[in-house]
Amino acid sequence: MTLDLVPPPALSPARALDSADALEARLREIGAARYHDRHPFHHLLHSGALNRGQVQAWALNRFYYQSMIPLKDAVVLSRLQDRETRREWRHRIEDHDGSAGEEGGIDRWLALTDALGLDRDYVVSAAGILPATRFAVDAYVDFVGRRSPLDAVASSLTELFAPAIHEQRIAGMLRHYDFVNPEVMRYFSTRLTQAPRDAGFALAYVRSNARTPEQREAVCQALIFKTNVLWVQLDALHHAYVTGHVPPGAFRPGQDGGTA
Ligand SMILES: O=C(O)c1cc(C(=O)O)c2c(n1)C(=O)C(=O)c1cc(C(=O)O)[nH]c1-2
């Protein structure tokens, strides 16, 4: 058996979190070391190494994450005491749910699963998702409800690192998969402008609201928690659809939920 190890980048010695700049530098180090762009499953996805059934499995499972993001943001909103912050946060819900006559991110994700040949009702039902997908995503929603509002905002900071992976994904998937075209990838092209705005706001919020070294440490831990939420979803996809151990009841390409 070979171990496919991903060597982590060297970390600089831990610095005291004595300023907003030190906090931001530490957050960026955490992203460089732990963000899911480093995961082998993403390397396979973006380099064209997956077959259609494996891409279907990824899109089906990621739909559950997408569908829960507005619920997560509604919980965050309910925790924010400051009206200005709520005003800024609430567009996140519309970005995903859409509004009258305007499609949202969930519609755009369903355009992707349609193009992959998955049945919409099956996707929306979440009946075929991996147990680990459900546990990880539900843990994220639970986290923002139980922890401090600062932790809740901080846990969204993975989005600082999302535009780079979305660019890699758009380019890689368009180049390598004949079942993908720019129309199908519009979920990601839209996120290229939405994510920097959201991440910029969340970063400014933690920079000014984490005022002690302990609070800054808590912000870092919230980001680490979230990188784990993302990472374990890909571990589970890899185990099921690359190694081949599909859990009982989970999606089986060619048998469930659409055309192979
Ligand atoms: O494709 C990705 O790699 C990726 C990652 C993340 C992220 O870093 O959490 C998000 C998204 N996409 C995304 O599309 C999205 O809407 C989103 C919302 C959030 C959040 O935590 O509020 N993360 C992400």
UniProtKB/TrEMBL annotation:
<dbReference type="InterPro" id="IPR004305">
    <property type="entry name" value="Thiaminase-2/PQQC"/>
</dbReference>
<comment type="similarity">
    <text>Belongs to the PqqC family.</text>
</comment>
<comment type="function">
    <text>Ring cyclization and eight-electron oxidation of 3a-(2-amino-2-carboxyethyl)-4,5-dioxo-4,5,6,7,8,9-hexahydroquinoline-7,9-dicarboxylic-acid to PQQ.</text>
</comment>
<comment type="pathway">
    <text>Cofactor biosynthesis; pyrroloquinoline quinone biosynthesis.</text>
</comment>
<dbReference type="Pfam" id="PF03070">
    <property type="entry name" value="TENA_THI-4"/>
</dbReference>
<keyword id="KW-0884">PQQ biosynthesis</keyword>
<dbReference type="InterPro" id="IPR016084">
    <property type="entry name" value="Haem_Oase-like_multi-hlx"/>
</dbReference>
<keyword id="KW-0560">Oxidoreductase</keyword>
<dbReference type="InterPro" id="IPR039068">
    <property type="entry name" value="PqqC-like"/>
</dbReference>
<feature type="domain" description="Thiaminase-2/PQQC">
    <location>
        <begin position="25"/>
        <end position="235"/>
    </location>
</feature>
<protein>
    <recommendedName>
        <fullName>Pyrroloquinoline-quinone synthase</fullName>
        <ecNumber>1.3.3.11</ecNumber>
    </recommendedName>
</protein>
<dbReference type="InterPro" id="IPR011845">
    <property type="entry name" value="PqqC"/>
</dbReference>
<dbReference type="GO" id="GO:0033732">
    <property type="term" value="F:pyrroloquinoline-quinone synthase activity"/>
</dbReference>
